[in-house]
User: What shape does this take?
Amino acid sequence: MEKHHGSHHQLIVQLFNHFIQGTFLFIDKDTIFTDQLKKTVLSNAFSNPYLMHGVLAFSARHMSTQTSPERSRYYLNQSTKLQTWAVSNFNPAPPEPSQDNCVALFLFSSLLCIHGLTDIALLDLDPEPFFIRFGHYFGLQRGVRTIIGDHWSRFEGSEIQNLLQWCELATMKKGQGSDCDSIRRLVAQSTDLSPEAVEACHLAIEQVQCVLDECIPHQPVPVHCVYLTLAWPLLVPEKMVDLLVLRRPAALIILAYYGAILELCRDLWMVGHAGKNIVHAIKVYLGPTWASWLRWPCDAVGIETP
Assistant: This one.
């Protein structure tokens, strides 16, 4: 028993140190933001055990990508155990909301979303399980959105206020380029979409175009564009999420365009080939009838089209 506790303690220390010393939280080049975010996470984790377990689970998940297949399975198993404990002890609606516990809620929910994105990167390419898992991922993002909306005033003056304000401003930008003209036309001529749905689709498209506007072929993706890409599921309107859950073709094709910009971030460990997997699953699901509308995202991720 003592040996078991000792080995468990060693694992916890290892995972904690890996989180502190690693530069894997988001983007290596953006050290100022990463370091500040890490400090914010840790300061809140010490007073919120579910967040600490989430941090350790996140660390274990990253370590699973850095080792042999055998050790990878071990760290994946530990990550699952830690996250299971965290989720079972996580209360998304604290009886007495405060700035501290609301920030912790946001941080923990965000870590869950990154876990979800990593899962998508590892999925096989069969559409049905893919869409089920992706629906779960968007459900996590919806949870983050709810926390932000319900407790917006409590984030004022907090360590994450600037991040949330940046997200809010990002939703107001309009794309300038023509990369998304095809999907814009599809949405405009779709007679089965309500005015609310059309507006939601156009807003989601503009977020994709804004990223493409600032990306130069064969050059590293600008850091702020990476953040905008990762935040896209959080920034799109609620109606857009509903359309995706219903698997409406126009919404799925917009999601394929998102997959194309996500593929630009494939060097991030939590992204991998999630973008290409998204495009492939949508191409298979929609079939040849919609192939012409998917030509741009397929070309962007290297998938052949008829």
